[in-house]
Amino acid sequence: MQSTTEMTCLDESTIEKITEFVEARGCREVIRPRLLEHWPQFRFIFCSEDDMEDKTAYKEYKGFSVFLMAAGMGCARLTHTPQQAIGLIIAEHETEW
User: Fold this and answer.
1) CA of 85: how far to CAs of 21, 22, 30, in Å?
2) How many structural domains compose the chain?
3) Mean per-residue pLDDT of the chain
4) Average pLDDT over residues 48-61
5) I need a labelling partner for 77 at 20 to 30 A (CA). Which of 10, 25, 49, 67 fits?
6) 28 within a domain of the structure (yes/no)
7) In whole angstroms, what is the distance from residue 42 CA to residue 56 CA?
8) 53 domain-assigned
9) Helix and strand tally (H, E) in the chain?
10) Distances (CA, A) of 12 to 19, 36, 37, 84
């Protein structure tokens, strides 16, 4: 496992490229391998917005919200600072029937 100092952190431009990729292909777990092909240095988790209900998203998009995973060796945590983030949590919005 990489140490925190060796991990590549995100920036605004990369986040924008990743979210455009997700928007174009749909917010689904099945695109995770494609994300990893393009950005293998980052981590990606897909979940439902219900899983993140008490958290504040970094950004909202049509159909999904984005949360930033903070770099660190301990328990997983969120950040709102791209330069401290090593991955994205992409929370799909539930559609109302």
Assistant:
1) 18, 18, 23
2) 1
3) 88
4) 93
5) 25
6) yes
7) 21
8) yes
9) 2, 5
10) 11, 18, 20, 12
Q: Residue 59: in which H helix or E strand, if any?
A: strand 59-61
- Which amino acid is present at 13? S
Helix (H, G, I), strand (E, B) or coil at 60: strand
**Quick one: which of 4, 3, 1, 22 has its CA closest to 88?**
22
Arithmetic mean of pLDDT, 35-58: 94
Tell me the per-residue pLDDT of 64-93, one tens digit each, with 9 for 90 and over.
999 999 987 677 789 999 999 999 999 999
Domain range enclosing 45 = 4-92
- Is 40 within 8 Å of 86 (Cβ atoms)? no
pLDDT at 51: 93
Residue linked to tokens 């990606």: 44
Nearby residues of 58 by Cβ (< 8 Å), 6 or more positions away = 15, 65, 66, 67, 68, 80
CA distance 20 to 17: 5
Predicted local confidence at residue 6, as pLDDT: 63
pTM of the model: 0.85
